[in-house]
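Section: Multi-chain targets

For targets with more than one molecule, the full set of components is provided together so that the structure can be written out for the assembly as a whole rather than chain by chain. Components appear in the order listed by the source. The example entry contains three components.
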Amino acid sequence: MTRNRRFGRVRLILLLTLAALLCLLCLIGPELAPNDPYKVNLLQAKQPPSEKFPLGTDGFGRCVLSRILVGARTSVFSALLVVGITLTVGCVIGTLCGYFGGAVDTIFMRLVDIFLAFPGMVLALAVAGMLGTGLGNAVIALAATGWPQYARLARSYVLTLREENFVYAARLNGQSTWSILLRHILPNALRPLIVTASLSIGGTILGLAGLSFLGLGALPPAAEWGSMLSDGRGLMQQAPWIVLYPGLTIFLTVVLFNLLGDSVRDALAPADDTHLFRKVRPRFKKKGTPTL
Amino acid sequence: MENSLRPDRGSLGRFVLRRLLLLIPVLFGVTFLTYGLMFLSPSDPVEMMLQAQGIPVTPEVAQAMRVKMGLDRPFLEQYFAWLWRFLSGDMGVSLIDGEPVRQMLMAAAPKTLLLTATSLLVTVALSLPLGILTAVRQNRFSDYLIRFLSFLGNAMPSFLLSLLLLYLFALRLNLLPVLAGGGAKGLILPTLALSLPMSGRYIRQVRAAVLEQLGQRYVSGAISRGVRTRTVLFKSVLRNAMTTILTLLALSMGSLLGGTAAVERIFSWRGMGYMVMDAIFMRDYPVIQAFVVWMTVLYVVINLLTDLSYAIVDPRSRKGLGVQP
Amino acid sequence: MKKRLCLILAALMLLGALSACSPAAPSQTASPGGASKKPKSFVFGVYNFTKIDPSDNYNGWGTLRYGVGETLFKLDDNLNVVPWLALGAGLSEDKLTWTITLRDGVLFHNGNVMDGAAVKASLERLIAANERAASELMIGSIAAEGNTVSITTSQPNPTLLNALCDPYACIVDVSAEDGVDFNLYPVCTGPYLVKSFTPDVEAHLEPFAQYWGGTPALNHLTIKAIPDVDTLALAMQNGEVDAAYGLSYDTLSLFSGDDRFSITQAATARVYMLFFNLNRPFMQDPAFRRALCMAVDKDSYGKILLNGAGTPTKSAFPSSLSYGDDALFEDVPDYDPEGARALLLENGYRDTDGDGYLDKGGQKVTLRVVTYTRAGLPQSTQALVSALRDLGIDAAYQQYESISQALQSGDYDLCAYSFVTAPTGDAYAFLSHTMGTGKGGNYGRYSNPEVEALLNQLATEFDVAKRAEYAVQIQKIALADSSYCFMFHLNMFMVMKKGVTGLKQSPVDYYQITAETSPAA
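Its structure, encoded as tokens over all components, is:
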């Protein structure tokens, strides 16, 4: 069991490092790009990977690798921004509702219900349709659908936290409400929220890429991974690298963040009863009952 | 989902009623938001409507149109007028070609529902057995393999998967048609494109839910009493994990309802997602509004049904006792 | 027991969803023809599928393309007016009355005879419904007698016959309009009539046995709407359609090497051009506009972006027409990025504040370049935006599915647009529409009194040579100060399965399905 915990910790550190590296890459990506990601050079269009263009060129002769590197910033940071916003907003609202209750609680929870009533992308599509396309609107749209779940979570944790002894003690001690909130309630409520947040980064990246693919997110000539896929679709048979590499990049990034999310969850909220189960399993075998 | 809500002891009817009553403010809020969004738009709907019809936009013409459509009234009045018309079946006409939105919806909705239903079916058919399998065979090879594959599936964007599937199965292998055509054959690829990523996610959740159950005392208790594993599994564990599973169904329905747009476009599947994409690019507000309202209503109803199923399936919530196999 | 209840609930939900599904699309097996003939069916995949009431806007293009309707006259491959439903026309001394003799034995789809009265009714219906038609035909009154129609124009109209070739002039049987929606089921004279029509999805047509031009070759024709051009290409590759129109130019390389397909391509009068919004600050400087024109690499765009289907041009008209001869327009600059740079510098556009962009008079040179999604336009425009940025201009690109709003509101600096410049084989329609003051297609709000005068003369000049001269002069004036930029003329093409006959790309982009169209044997 301890071995498991240690392994979990190592994994977490490893993944965090990788994620940090990815973020670093997003920041310095433009510097690393071997060519200008926006420069159109028609004579070099649709070239397969070569020394000059490590991942080939697209229909306009732009370097695919450079565009992926530059697009990393848009794709990854926007997703992180969305998660950050939803986490903060949801946490704050949920905490306030849970702690104070009363009218504030009722109003905001109704609001949460309303926003939760919108299925996934529908609100994003509505926002895109009404406010127009563009990365900013896509971020707003995804953030608007995202915050309710954090508010809910925060609220339910705060409700229990509120009754804890140390809170009573703090109140008896004369600590101000805001101080209690900031020093006691929020840090504890944040834990499960961070777990949820890290688990949803991958999904947000996919969501943003999906919106861009549809033409509702970043607009050309922006080098966002999803829109690169949509642009390259028409040349998929003649020049598959235009679609393949951005697609692969999205995939790997999401894999990384999903792994990270799992790690964070395992580290912060080990509610996994597998250790109990392991005690049970030998009994299965001993009894000689057929395994399924 | 209302996780703080539990039905009154033994009274399913009252539970249903309460949930239905709670629906009303939510639906009001949803429609209000949807209608209000239109006014946040940077372009003037009247101008756009005139331009779409090719009528030159002059201040007089625009004002006349505004009055005719009632857009010069105070916002709340407009909202209620629109809501009233909507509820009585008049969902307006498309700004592009004047076709009644209601007709467009009736043509498109069944196709999306069909795709959603089959995707859901396939997801459940994949996730449930595989999830249970990995839970039971925890840490064995099959567990790792399935978990690995499902992890990958979860990370795959559905639009990329659609393109790959289309290329592979339609073009290279020539097994399936490119044009979906609305029939059964055309349903296969879009369903796969939607259900594989979802299964990826839900296999792991089913696994976690089942594992959680398997770790409970009553399981080891039953087994030590000589009850066969299979019986334990199906009678008790599944039933208790059902809550989680139902939640998954409802959530996946949610992501399906909005998320079919890309897949529908790639496979030319003329559902609501397809319809709304065109509407979005042309700023066809009535269509977008109808889409949002109906999808949301559907989602809300499904959540309600799910909560109902909770109450039926999870006796704990009603009797407050442990479950007996 | 509870689990069962739950399963039942779930099943009910699914049943509800499934029961709402629509019936499968009608099968495409052809209705049996002659006893010994094998049923011939044809599926035509198109990227833009509209309703087909010819008098509605541009929907007549569909009526003509799908073999449903016909006009009195048509244009041959050299854009000359030739007889079709009419046999010929004579013009009165005062140049106001045209006497048109109709072909004998032409029947409408419902069996009615197409005679003078029917044509008169059809044309009157047209000019009442379609403003563009009314202004191009300039019909004052129509008289019908037997198989002759006499059209008296309100003023001398040299291009009446050309206008009668426009798809809006498909002859319909007005008497059949009672209770029939002509948007879906127009009653015309063509080889095929509509059996069922699902807007935006597909139409099923069957042959008109009494077609005056002979028995149509097909037993069943399906027009399928596939607006996603990538899907259309895949469907063509997979053999799910017999022919496809509207494919992107990228796909030419996919099909041209493939033995299973043949491509029919023709140079058309469709031009890709740039509108300059002459109300915007920088756009009012002719030297600036000239520099912009010099930044357009027409050759490369045509060859690479359009896969060779674009022919660079200086004038609005293809070189096959005398008034489209590029040699006449020496004023128009060639592609010369260095020259553009120098020109901008000369005229005071320089980067004084070191931000990487040119500025003049304290204003950064920022341009908003817009276009829409017609095949080839986005690519060319994006390439142009990149070239402008190379020059130091802060050009931003915006793409629309429907650009009319941006154009009407004037919220743009440059707009890349596509027009068919000689839709009826004559220069007047296009020139007047796009260069006439206040006209609907004059998106840049160009206005020049000399051009106005010439347009008025062109409107009434009957002598063909003189018409050509006027057309050249008008273009010269408009192009001298770079108020417009014509980039290239497009080849339009259709891809079809090898062995398909009777389907040829016409230089006029609205003749497609004919009575001879037949699938591979």
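Chain A touches chain C at residues 38-40, 42-43, 45, 59-60, 219-221, 233-238 (CB under 8 Å).
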